[in-house]
Amino acid sequence: MSFEVPAEAYDAFMGRYSRPLAEVFAEFAGLPEDGRVLDVGSGTGALTTVLARRFGESEVAAVDPSASFVATAAARFPWVDVRHGHAEDLPFDDHVFAATLAQLVVHFMGDPAVGVGEMRRVTRPGGVIAACVWDFEGGRAPQSRFFQALREATGAAADESDRAGARRGQLGALLKQAGCSDVVEGELTIEQAFEGFDEWWEPYTLGVAPAGAQLAALDDAGRDRVHDAARALFPPGPFTVAVTAWAARGRA
Ligand SMILES: C[S@@+](CC[C@H](N)C(=O)[O-])C[C@H]1O[C@@H](n2cnc3c(N)ncnc32)[C@H](O)[C@@H]1O
After folding, report:
1. Dihedral over Cα of 93, 132, 11, 228: its sign
2. 10-residue block means of pLDDT along the chain (252 residues)?
3. Is any ligand 1 atom within 6 A of the Cβ of residue 132?
4. In angstroms, rounded to a whole number, what is the distance separating the alpha carbons of residues 179 and 103?
5. CA nearest 99: which of 72, 76, 75, 131?
6. Cβ–ligand 1 contact at 24 (below 6 Å)
C-alpha cells in the first residue's frame, strides 16, 4: 500500500487518531531511560513527536518508504535522522537502538516477519521492540464504521482485518517468531471528538489508505450511497469515537 499522499491529507485522515495513540503506545512500550530510538514507518511523525520530546531529536531516527512523508518529517524534525526505506531492509547497523517501535505499520509491511526481524536486528540486546495495529478484526479501528457503510452500500469492503497484526495475538506471535523475549500484549484505546458527521466523513474523500482508495474507486452515485450509509451510523450533532489498537512489546 503506497502512502504517496500529501502529509496534510494523512494528518486529517489518520493523524488525528495516531497522535493521541502515540502517547499511550509510548507508555505501553516501556521505553528505556536513554539511548537512540527508532520510529519504523514514521509517516508524518505522530510517534516521532513523542520520542523526540522524551529523548531529544538528535537521539531519534525515523524511516518510511513514502517520499512525501519523509520530506514532511525531515522538515518538522530537523535534528531527527529521517531516512527513506522499508522495515524489511532497515538502513541501520546492527544493535544501534535502545528501542525500536512501529505504530500502525506492521499491517502494511510486505513481509511482516522479515520487518519485525529487522526491528530486532537493529535493536541492542535487551532493548525494547514494540508494535501496534488497529483492531480491524473486532471492528474497533477508526475506519471500521466506514468499512461497514461501504459494505452496506456496495456489498463488499476490503476492511483490513486480514492484515498482519489486525487480530488478537498476531503481533505477539510475530515478536516471538523474531526471537524477542518477555513478550507482553495489550490493547490501547483512545477517543476522538467530532463536531458532527461532516468532520468525520471529509477525510475519507481524500484518497488516503485502503479506505480512501476504495471510496475514490467508486463513481459519484456509489460515493453518495456510502456517504448516506455512513451518515445513518452516527447521531446528529457532536459525537465521540473510541478506537482500539492491539499492541505488543518484547526485548531483543
Ligand atoms: C498508517 S501509517 C502510520 C504512520 C505513523 N506511524 C503514524 O502512526 O501516524 C503507515 C505508514 O507505514 C508506512 N509503510 C508502508 N509500508 C511500509 C514498510 N514496508 N516499511 C515501513 N513503513 C511502511 C507508510 O508509508 C505509512 O507512513
Report:
1. positive
2. 80 94 98 96 97 97 96 97 98 98 97 98 98 97 97 94 95 98 98 97 93 96 98 96 98 98
3. no
4. 20
5. 131
6. no
**38 Cα to the center of ligand 1, angstroms:** 13
Q: Is the CB of 104 under 6 A from ligand 1?
A: yes
Residue 220 burial (CB count, 10 A): 7
Q: What is the pTM of this model?
A: 0.95
Ramachandran area for residue 137 (φ above 0: left; ψ -120 to 50: alpha; else beta): alpha
Phi-psi region of 245 (alpha: psi -120 to 50; beta: other; left: phi over 0): beta
Q: What angle do CA 94, 99, 104 make, to 5 degrees?
A: 105
List Cα–Cα distances, 153 to 7, 156, 201, 229, 232, in angstroms.
Answer: 29, 8, 15, 6, 12
Of 20, 19, 9, 13, nearest to 42 by C-alpha is 19
Cell numbers given for 188: 490501547
> Which cell goes with 129?
521492540
C-alpha grid cell for residue 235?
447521531
174 Cβ contact partners less than 8 Å away, ≥ 6 residues apart: 106, 112, 113, 116, 131, 164, 165, 248
Query: Is residue 100 in contact with ligand 1, taking CB distance under 6 Å?
Result: no
Cell numbers for 170: 498476531
DSSP 208: -
User: CB neighbours (10 Å) of residue 195?
Assistant: 10
Q: How far is the CA of 116 from the centre of ligand 1 (A)?
A: 13
